[in-house]
Structures are given as structure tokens and as C-alpha cells.
Amino acid sequence: MKKIAITGGKGGTGKSTVAVLLTNKFSKKGKKVILCDCDVECPNDYLLIGQKLKKPVKKIFAEFPELNKKKCQKCGLCAKTCQSNAIFLAPGKYPVFIKDLCSACGACWAVCPYKAIKAKKEEVGKIYLHKIKSSLYLITGVAKAGLEETGPVVTQLKEFALNFAKTIKADYVLFDTAAGIHCPVISALFGCDFAYAVTEPTPMGAYDLNLILDLCKKLKIPTKVIINQADLGDKKEIKKIARKFETKIVKEIPYSKKIVDAYSQGRLNKL
Ligand code: SF4
Ligand code: SF4
Q: CATH 3.30.70.20 residue ranges in the chain?
């Protein structure tokens, strides 16, 4: 089973479109494919293929720290340990947990020598499963509205997708990541065999391509470039960046009214 990420530093380059088109391609070749939408803050693959999110198959939970002031000795070890700077500790005061920065890693309650931090379970997201046809499934993750740190949602979503892939003996799992290079993107890329970085021939596209190729290099994920709407701009800078990272541009997709129509009508899977 191959795990492929469809990613891109910049939003709006057509990453989800490419993810669906690739899924179609594998499925037409008779392969069993799962498309997993890891853009959990704003998933849209389901809209592109005319589906609705109705009943989740699973809820996603994460554990967040809760302080027991009676036990806390204000030693500060939890604040020193937290790698996300999610614990503020003023001299002589109790630690304050900043939930928006917390990645629910559990380090603080593991290190507290006085067992003053309790893990409190909270729902952080939902998973939806659609069978599009016998050889094609869509798995969608949706993070709870307002949740700042969505990396743990993506990690659990991927775990679900990979377990499901094993049960149906899938040939490919495609992970459509969020745009950017932040924590949820890293969580989606982590453990993938291969990535396609989708970009567009614009100065911003080139700038963000540089960032995502650098991230993939650091994560040691072999990556190839796909240029979307390749005939609508200047590809010089994109080619320069691909050369810099010794990465191949494997596909140039020209602007296509047919694709735009299918995209806006939610029938991209019919192409
Ligand atoms: S490590 Fe435990 S005892 Fe020390 S400040 Fe943090 S919560 Fe309090
Ligand atoms: S769970 Fe992890 S990220 Fe959250 S406050 Fe504790 S150490 Fe920091």
C-alpha cells in the first residue's frame, strides 16, 4: 500500500482538484484507492465530488491538562517541559495552561512530580466515510470549530484511514493536506512514501513552493512538482526552485474550463 501526500505551500493552487483527479486516475486503472482529506479546518474534497457530511463514523478526542491546585507545588517543571509554550508561569503563581497553543502531547502531566495535572478528555473532531464506488472511498476529517491546534486531529484521522485501508486492502491512500507548512501539514505528511507539491506559476506560488519543498526535504519525503494552470503565468521561477531542490516537475496542467465546470458543479470524480 502506497501512501501519497498531495500538498502545497499555498492555498488555492488546485491541490484538492489534483488530489481528486489523481484518485480518479488510480481508480480507473482498477486500483483500490482511499482519498483522505486532511485539511481538517476546511475540508472540501467531499464538495468537489458531490457528497454531504451527514453522520460521522467516529469522534476524535484529545486530552488536555487540568490543574489540581491542591497538589501543585509551583515547581515550574511543567512549564519548562512544554515545547509548545502553552504553559505560562509567573513567579510564585500557579501555572496557567493556554489551550490555543496546547498540542495535547501529555508531557506536562507525565513530568509533574506531584501528580497535580490531570488529563481531561475533550472531543476535537469527527471523521466521515463515503463509499464513492467499490474501489474508491473518501475519508474526511473535520476539526471542532475554533480549535487552534489541529495536528492531533490529523494524526488520529490518518490512523483511522490507514487502519481502514488495511481492512479493504487498498492499493493507495492519498492524503490531501492543508496548505502551508504548519503543524497539521507536518502531521499529514509524516510517514508518507511520497508527495506531490502542487503549485501555480505566480510569484506567491513560487515563494510557497520553496517553503513546502524545504519542509518535505527536512521530513525526508521524496517530492515531485505539479504546476496547475501552467499556461496562465511565468514558470521560470518555479523551474528554478525545482532545480534548487533537485525535484522534477512531473505534470503541467493547463487551464481547463472542463475542470473548472466540474469543480464548481461537484462532479470532479466524473472526469
Ligand atoms: S510540574 Fe506540577 S507541581 Fe510543578 S508547577 Fe507544574 S503542575 Fe505544579
Ligand atoms: S499537553 Fe503538551 S502542549 Fe499541552 S500544555 Fe501539556 S506539555 Fe504543553
A: 69-115
